[in-house]
Amino acid sequence: xxxxxxxxxxxxxxxxxxxxxxxxxxxxxxxxxxxxxxxxxxxxxxxxxxxxxxxxxxxxxxxxxxxxxxxxxxxxxxxxxxxxxxxxxxxxxxxxxxxxxxxxxxxxxxxxxxxxxxxxxxxxxxxxxxxxxxxxxxxxxxxxxxxxxxxxxxxxxxxxxxxxxxxxxxxxxxxxxxxxxxxxxxxxxxxxxxxxxxxxxxxxxxxxxxxxxxxxxxxxxxxxxxxxxxxxxxxxxxxxxxxxxxxxxxxxxxxxxxxxxxxxxxxxxxxxxxxxxxxxxxxxxxxxxxxxxxxxxxxxxxxxxxxxxxxxxxxxxxxxxxxxxxxxxxxxxxxxxxxxxxxxxxxxxxxxxxxxxxxxxxxxxxxxxxxxxxxxxxxxxxxxxxxxxxxxxxxxxx
Length: 398
Ligand SMILES: C[S@@+](CC[C@H](N)C(=O)[O-])C[C@H]1O[C@@H](n2cnc3c(N)ncnc32)[C@H](O)[C@@H]1O
What we know:
Blueprint: H1 3-15, E1 20-28, E2 38-46, E3 49-57, E4 62-67, H2 74-78, E5 82-89, E6 92-98, E7 104-110, H3 132-136, H4 151-173, E8 186-191, H5 197-208, E9 213-219, H6 222-235, E10 241-245, E11 258-262, H7 268-278, E12 283-287, H8 306-309, H9 312-333, E13 336-342, E14 353-359, H10 366-379, H11 384-388, H12 390-395
Parallel strand pairs: 8-9, 8-11, 9-10, 11-12
Antiparallel strand pairs: 1-2, 1-5, 2-3, 3-4, 5-6, 6-7, 12-14, 13-14
Helix pairs in contact: 4-5, 9-10
The structure holds S-adenosylmethionine.
S-adenosylmethionine (SAM) binds near residues 248 and 268.
């Protein structure tokens, strides 16, 4: 089918608000630039009219707008440069994926789905609460409802995945992560995995997206390894999810596509970032935990920062910010494109910042190295991450 006909087919299916369940546009086509990472379109019932709700996510936040089907400029959207199109209707799933050579691969399957037109519906779940693995890992109760005491952790994991998913798709489309197949799955390493809420969720979610995956969970605690391994066995997924009890820094070099860490305590986040860099992880997503390392080093305060640090609370917050800013800059110097994003509202955890890094191999500008050196020398810092990556930083000229 010609490209124009393919886009026409996608457009017709999306604009058919009576049968559309949802459409997702993601990834980037070769030679295109995109302002947003992902667009999801759903029909919603507002004052007796079915409108199309367009949710655009730029990697940091989601913007939502509602359009009458006749008002939506579908051609502009379809031609803006997305590489993957998924259109779920009540009776079919139609998908188009542009290959690296910019050829569209089309797939259609028959399904039976229902429209959900409620405008105020709760955000669609990536993880159905009744999924057996959520019951096994103790997030949901036996009735398949998220336990009140686990609600925050459930949301943290889900929002973490909401960022992981488009970042991963974009990295695969851009060739930063290898082509995925059964024999060459995406390899995810979760550093400081604890009870493995995120580890299992990442595995199950990517499997549900038909992406072959191998997940490795690392935690220093042997009881975590035993518990997580027996859950994986019970779920029959122990071929593709594995747990080891070891210090992150001692974890042997292994092939990794995505290194993740959710609230690895204090300098365990630095261990995780250093491990990811040393093992050449193309993607890193780390949500840091407490920040004690630099807090204890904030002694000789370069003025005029004394204005801030004489207030205990502000000193603590500044210490957190400096810690993460230094982590970001080190990754940047070592060839990563780095962003910090809030992955979840602060009401669910005050530790809601995520460092998202994609390896580009770009050489840092000398001014970036100079700013980093100036910052740590003015404060007299010896950051944990810089110690762990001393050789790499020296090689990069920092
Ligand atoms: C706050 S828990 C977070 C667990 C999990 N990622 C989550 O979000 O539910 C931090 C975990 O990191 C582990 N940990 C801390 N330092 C570590 C290290 N150096 N090596 C391996 N695991 C470590 C702890 O045992 C603990 O299970």
